[in-house]
TrEMBL record:
It comes from Hymenobacter montanus. This is Probable 2-phosphosulfolactate phosphatase. Its cofactor is Mg(2+). One of its GO terms (molecular function) is magnesium ion binding. The keyword Cell inner membrane does not apply. Belongs to the ComB family. The keyword Hydrolase applies. It comes from the Bacteria. It is an enzyme of class 3 (hydrolase). It catalyses: (2R)-O-phospho-3-sulfolactate + H2O = (2R)-3-sulfolactate + phosphate. Keywords: Hydrolase, Magnesium.
Amino acid sequence: MPKLDICFSPELLPLYDLRGQVAVIVDILRASSTIVTALGEGVTHVFPVASLEECAAYGRQHGCLTAAERDGLPAPGFDLGNSPFGFLNADRPPHGRALSISTTNGTAALRRSLAAEAIVVGAFLNLGAVADFTRRQGRDVLVVCAGWKGQFCLEDTIFGGALAARLAPDFDVYGSDATLAALHLWQQGQADLSAYLLQSAHVRRLNSLEANQDFAFCLQIDAYAKVLPLWQNDRLV
Ligand code: 3SL
């Protein structure tokens, strides 16, 4: 039976062997939610890159939209920041455009997971699509939580618990304390995710940046039920 495990932070990735596994990259607030939204709103493909320089270079080379964030704020000189609402602006629809994006933790977590057999971006917005995909793959799954600058984040971990709950009993979701902890968080928080996460560090950080509408948006389960950002060559499609 395949197993699901959870890596609480990209700093812990050297402890895992991603070869042959499906990596689910999660940065609920907000990179993975923003990438899902962008693809759901008509962006053709996404180049997730670690540095601001690469983000700008991809923008020039591919003529694509650019989005960048550092410390929660839009990085200067790019078309957009890291808010999903950037892709919901009726005056500037993203249809048919590609996107390069660089964020503090989320896109860097993806770049550090390239040894995996398959890489998919997960969020509450596409939880069902990720669960269906991982079930079809039938391989071991590692949920890679982007965290915050190497630290544990509640919202990414509770997503891991939600995915584990969806994959049980077809997957072994009881094999590590990390997954057990995530399942416990999900059992505690699922009835009112918003209330449960209110005290979390990143929610407080976003609130101080007046990005609290993003928080509620990113917690919508299966709002983009058909969006499955899959890594192919150098991009998410
Ligand atoms: O670090 C990241 O990847 C971002 O998602 C953080 S923020 O939500 O834009 O602050």
